[in-house]
Records
---
Amino acid sequence: MAGGCLWGCAMNNSNKNFLEHKVMTIEVITPVCCSDGVTLNKKEYLYDNKKRKIYLLHKLEFGKYLNGRRWLNNFERYMQGKEHDEMSLYEWLQCMAGHKGVTIEQLGKAVLATVDVQVEIKRNGEGKPVNDMNPTIHLVDGNVYIPGSTIKGMLRTAILFHLIRQKDWEDRRKIYWRQIQSDIKNLYENRRNEYESKKALAQYSNTADKIEKELLSVLKLDTKEAASNDALRGLRCGDATLIEHKQGKKSAGYHTVILKKKDIKDDTVKEVPSFFECILPGTSFQFSLTLEKSMLAKIGITSVDDLLTIMQQFYEFLNDTLRSGFSKRGHLFAKIDRGNAYLGRNTGFLQKTFVLALADTPKDAVPIIKTVLHQQFEKHKHQEDKKISPHTLKGVEYNSELQLMGGVKIFDAH
């Protein structure tokens, strides 16, 4: 028995030295939209403007429903714009059903989730469809979740920021910063030449790829594939699924709402005709986080605590930079300051780039960022950016309160 205990204890200690595994909690602080890039138009969801609800559809089950009603051919003509093209899908269904109409209950499994709409949308005095809408990702049972790839992508950016700012990489940072400045100067000088400007953007992107490879491809395995040498192979994030709360409200859709995008400047707030299905503040998720220590130690990360510290420092730097650029919007950060990470759509350009880490100061990054953004989104007039670029904060209005999007708190609750 003693020999077995010694062997078992040795194995446990070996695993602890090799792996660290924790179940982490994500608390949503401000509205979050985790989308897979899909945008739905008025023919791809049901909008009941009287009840102010959107019904997201399970495509296979909806197809079965249409087939059972012998409406598939009509539906095909409708989708092709050959029949009732001006109608929303909800209006089309009611038209097909005649005076009896169609109830949500009759659709049964064809309804994946139900979402409240918290925006005023009018057409000739009457409710109209939300039109293009960015849904958050749902499981097959209709509940929302946050993909592990989304969490790892955020951590990757934070880790790169941390590594770039290390003292022993200062000389390399300065070299790459000069290269980035040269790339962007070339982009600016060729901004009127489509071919040369694309070439300059590609060079800028190539420089960024070189930085990532130098900092992260450090495993020195016997392979030519950079991904195989990436130290972040040792970081594994599971999908974050909902924690069931004591309220007992488990119905799909309870955790989300439709909100309208707002571009926020110091003196103005502009509504943008873009809609997001957002996970509500107060919603909590859990996900598994595993660190393979031998890989991550190559970049100085030895524990989950190290990772949380890096994430927090990146988050605070971002918020300090944004505060300085939007001095009249300091109140928006009171709630954001409760978090330690940004996740999802409509959180802004700065949260997804490490240009700020390369620049000597945040102000030095403005000419670089505004030139890149102007080249990609000319109509947004980023060439006029001065104190900060981009020149808008991204937000929504929820419960009559203007809020920045994407703020979450990630922590070990055990």
---
Amino acid sequence: MRRRFLFNKDIEESLVITANEPSTVTFDVYALGTCEYNLNNTGWVKYTTTTYSLNTGETISFRGDLSTSSTAIDQGVGRFSIDGNVDLYGSPMYLLAGQFLKEGVFESLFAYCGIRNVSSTFLPATTLADSCYYSMFQGCTSLTTAPELPATTLEERCYYFMFRDCKSLTTAPELPATTLANHCYQHMFQNCTSLTVVPELPATTLSTGCYSNMFYGCTSLTTAPELPATTLSKYCYSNMFRGCSKLNYIKMLATDISASDCLFEWVYGVSSTGTFVKHPDMNSLPTGSSGIPSGWTVVNDGEESGGNLTFPVRLYEGSNNSNASEVISFFNDLKNSSERLQQTTFWDFSDILTLPEYYGVTDFANMVTDYKNVIHINDIYYTDRMYVYEGQPYIHYSRSPAEARSRCARLQLW
């Protein structure tokens, strides 16, 4: 299916590559049409396949009117070879000059290149095409900052292998789509061994293989994104967290797992202990690598804290005795402000005065909404949300509100 990206030809826009160290850049063009380059803003020149050397701080820009009607587009519009370390700006959409975003158009465009950062607006399309970003950054082992992915209309395999083997990537971009396509996120972050922050996965209606192998081999990941869908699809979670050796918290609310291989080996090789939150009506999940991980504690959704269960509360940076009384008062006020919290039994908060880690009971997942994101007490900024780190919930605090918010952004909401 063809999708149009709006392009203003009156504005000189391009794909810009900036060197962070001495680097070489080659662009092998596969598609028909014209392509131009601009080296260090010296003017636009017709491009022929050549390797260009950049010193630190130098740039080379590309733009084009590359046809997407050629059979060569089966290989993608072209492929860059970049040795060294560069940042990417602008957008590859300017290689198309307003042509259709078509199947496979950016397949492997930057695969195995020496890229460090990609600007947030690099991929602005909100409607995608089949396999359009297939393997786009695969093997970019220096990539630390990924572009935003605002698309809400997906097509088959649109993100397939997109960031596979990006071993320096720590934070995944948000994925706002609620309607999925077959295999859309399959293998997307496979072997991203530094990944610790993953996107929310809000879709409640799944498709064949949509999340298959998505986080396979993400060995730094400790907390899975919440999986709210109640009915699973064929292969949808197959191998999803396979090899995530530190993973110790999963919330998966499926009640219908009858689809073929929907949970095949999905938690093979995760942590030997952890917490698995399931739907209260789900009693047929098997134990093992294709179900609930062996050795994990099983909890019904809504019972993670409060009522019959308790969880530790820890100040992220350790105890701070100088403002302990204010912290105690703060949490007591929270308790009194919520009917749900009033049903929770709190332990003695005086422990905070002497212990760097103290234990209480928490239920901040349903905290009243009139609290701000960060609460200021005696020059300490506390977040009003409970987060999980390495399987334990934490209250985060800092000397600055920005840092407190940043700490929150890096961890998953409990």
---
Amino acid sequence: MHKHYTSKIEQNTEALQNGKEVTRSECFFLSTSQPENGSRKVSLGTTTGIHAKKENNGLSFGENSKKSRYKLLDTAKHLLSNERITFCLHSLPTGAKVLQDTKTGHAHLAGVARCGLGWVCPVCSTKIALGRRSELLEASTAAREKGLQAYFVTYTASHKKEDTLQDNFTDMKAALTSLKVSRAWRELKINSGMVGYVDAWEITFGNANGWHPHMHSVIFASPGLDVQKLEISIFELWEKSLAKLGLSASKEHGVKVARANDNIGEYLTKWNLETEMTGANFKEGKAKSYTPMGLLALYQAGNKQAGILFQEYAKATKGKSSLRFSRGLRDLLGLGQGSTDKELAEAEQGRTAETLATFSPALWKEIKRQGKSGVIGELLIVAGMGQGALDIWLGALFRMGIDIEGRVRKKNDLQN
């Protein structure tokens, strides 16, 4: 535990024992909170609001990342008030539980609803991406055992700033379908020994050219292929497929092929296990290009236009798959049936954990209602320091406590 936290816990424990109410400003986790939505205006062309200054609050980088994700979830709920995301993290009838991993000390939740919306939920998308990454690493290992080589392929198409994301996305999907049902593609598969592929979408927004949906793909084929020749062959087919729809792509960027290494999972899921919020779901792209979560962060910092763009993105991606294995590939590699996004969001991933606290649905709702934006993220950071720290935090902010059976109750009820 950080020394800063330890001293503050001791001070607040003594204060509570003496009957003094510990105020929100005195509580050790909240002294450096970020401004709420609308507190300052930010131009869409700046990086302010996406990369906040490092907080001198004693939190680790991962802890600040967790805090940011839960704040972004509350912001997304505000923008998408009629969507399933609004129910994310609501308590189930059995009550919400806070658990602590016995190996890592990290805290997580059980007994809460998960929206499973990988495109738009900052919290669920993390778990989904980690689950997909695990699947892809398994696929990569199985492919190597069968003597196959993985190749990275990226498809892009030219677009204009005034194009809507819905139009760009629809056109790209149609062009890719046209490509992969063509006779020429079937011949390419035979000649390259291609047995299948995994496709994943990435979408960014650029100040200069607007929405930019592009497809990342991992092809499993014969080892030792000439990458440059493969790139030329795929580009020729891609160019023809685009032309059928009145679209085009530059030779420089239309198709890129590279021999894959061991980071297949990161390539397709764009999520780095070690650096969390530096994953592409959240970071600013090159040349003032923003990921959807970057737009959400901009809106959170006060930029209304960024919020409108995020709503457009949510509408265009609703109901669409973000990652897909080609037909028969899972069976060929012995992977079995894949999990849905919602199943990955709800999975506990084999953790061994102990329960620190159980909230009734009513008290869990009260925490979310009375707490500021991102309060659940702060709760989990505190819980990572143990049940005692969580008990102090609940008492200081919400006049609640944890009884000897691990149930959260109102202070008045605990004293009776």
---
Amino acid sequence: MRFLGLDITKRSSTITQSLGDISILRPFGLVGDGSISIEQAMQVPAVWDAINFLSGTIAGMPLHVFDKTQKGERKRVKSKTRIAGVGELLNKNVNDVCSSFQWRYDMFSTGVLTEGRFVTYIERDIAGNSINLFPVIGATCEINNNGRKVYKQPLKGGKYKIYDASDVIDITFMLKKDLVTARSPLKTCSTAIAKAFHANKYGAKLFENDGLPPFYVEGPFASQDAAKRASVNIAKVAKDAAASGQGSFAVPSGHTIHQLTSDPNSLQMIETQAHAVLEVARIYQLPPTFLQDLSNGTFSNTEQQDLQLVKHTVKRWCEQIEGELNLKLFGRNTNRYAEFNLDGLMRGDFMSTMQGNAVGIQSGQIMPNETRAKRNLPEVEGGSQLFIQGATVPIDKAGQGIDTKESIDFTPKEKDDEK
């Protein structure tokens, strides 16, 4: 006799199952395939948090364009002319319907941190100036017959649109050894993420079943239909008993209920979920604090993790994006370049920002109008010069307030010179 795909022998009234057949466990969410899809991975809270956090961090930082002068100074490019419009293109709006923030957020949330690649087409005018940026959905990279990289976008009817490598901005998570194919972090590490996914799925099914774990019934069943009815009846009695607050219920004589799986405590579901947070943090090189895991957090190490985020994670992505933008938008030999302002990460920390600005101004490193510009405040008269501590005077007038007549003369006397 067969019951739920299992062999039932009436003589011994037991249920047996071969080790190779585990299909009976799949309906209960107890058995996975060893890997999961990207959409399934996004259902893991730690993965969702990591992708949303990194995408928002990169998208929210100011991105400006500068020109390097012959004296080594840099001048920010203003968006007053079409030639200088690239400054607004990167920091405000990449095209008529998409802001720079949304473009960068989509770049990471739908491409780099999930699929492993995000491609953007650069639209140029007749003079070769960049005027718009458009995401290329579903683009793949390959080597053409001339040994050059090209990007193919699938269209309707099985056709493709080809883009030259110099006309696209290509940001990848990591490349394979062919230096063409991008690695998806979620697909590459799907087995590790699958543990968290299936643990969530098992817990959801367990609570969906009113906390009743999968079980099987052992007893003298007369037929297959009788075995099915017994299983349904016992499940109903167990749920009704739990709903009414009863701690036990009766089982017909000669029948025994056996739990099909281990209980949640034996499965260490809580520990599994906590470990999954650390696994996701490793995948995206994020300190656990930024995945809302403060189980081992202290005031000291949390602050250090804040610094680690900028130095070893955000900085890496900023440099990769800057390098691709500078090469594709401005070319190899140019004094124009794009640069992220990492100070933008301190926008919500008013006290630290003000203290840093004060130290920079009083030590003659930055001008007051520079700090005002970062806060979108207008320039003030006299603020475009350096100051130095010492009654805080202009740096080129330091020491002029000293009365030389009343000061001590340290010039050596004549008799000392004669000796």
